[in-house]
Each structure stands twice: as C-alpha cells, then as structure tokens.
Specification:
Elements: H1 2-24, H2 30-62, H3 70-89, H4 93-110
Helix pairs in contact: 1-2, 1-4, 2-3, 3-4
Length: about 110
C-alpha cells in the first residue's frame, strides 16, 4: 500500500514535469505563468510527500536497528530521498525515472 502511494506520487510528478515542459513552449502570458507555477508547486509537494514517507514511515518506524541488512536498506532509502530532492531542483524526466527506479530498488530490498 505504501509503495503504491509512493508510485502515485511519482506519476503525478511525471505529469507535472510534462505540463511544465509543455507550458514553457507556449507564449508567456499571465495565465501560462500562473499555470506553470501551479505545476511546479504540485511537483514539489509530491516530491516532499515521498521524502516525508521515507523519513517518517520507513526510517522512523519500519527499519529496525537489529536488521542484518540495515546498511543496504538505509543506503537505498537515502537514494530515494536524494532523488526526490533532485526532482524538486529540475524539470527532467530522466530524474523522475531515476526516482521511480530508486523506489523500486528500495522496495526490493525492503520486502
């Protein structure tokens, strides 16, 4: 369930990046700038949601200190959080794809 929600966030981020790209090619009117700003805010909110889930759900609650694979899981969780940060800093579908892959990689080590 949690991983499904993380992937929904990625899908929304991807849509946001596509919309920002599309709007940036149009004539810059007040309406297009307003719409682009809203898509940027949406992209950043969903990236923050991913980072929050990783920190507050996985790091604080689900990853256990006595887990023999804790180091691997922490490294993969950290990568998800870094990629969420990079998504906020860019408008690049390759970075969004890296975020998706990092979540899938973390899921594989977690389950």
């Amino acid at each position: 369930l949690v991983f499904g929600k993380l992937m929904e966030n990625v899908t929304t981020i991807e849509k946001s990046v596509r919309e920002i790209d599309s709007l940036s090619e149009k004539e810059q009117t007040a309406l297009t700038v307003n719409s682009m700003t809203r898509w940027v805010i949406n992209k950043e909110k969903h990236a923050d949601d991913i980072a929050t889930v990783m920190a507050q759900y996985f790091l604080q609650q689900r990853l256990k200190l006595d887990d023999a694979n804790l180091g691997v899981k922490l490294t993969k969780a950290h990568r998800v959080m870094v990629m969420a940060m990079k998504v906020k800093q860019t408008v690049n579908l390759e970075i969004v794809d890296e975020l998706k892959k990092s979540i899938q990689d973390f899921q594989g080590s977690y389950e």
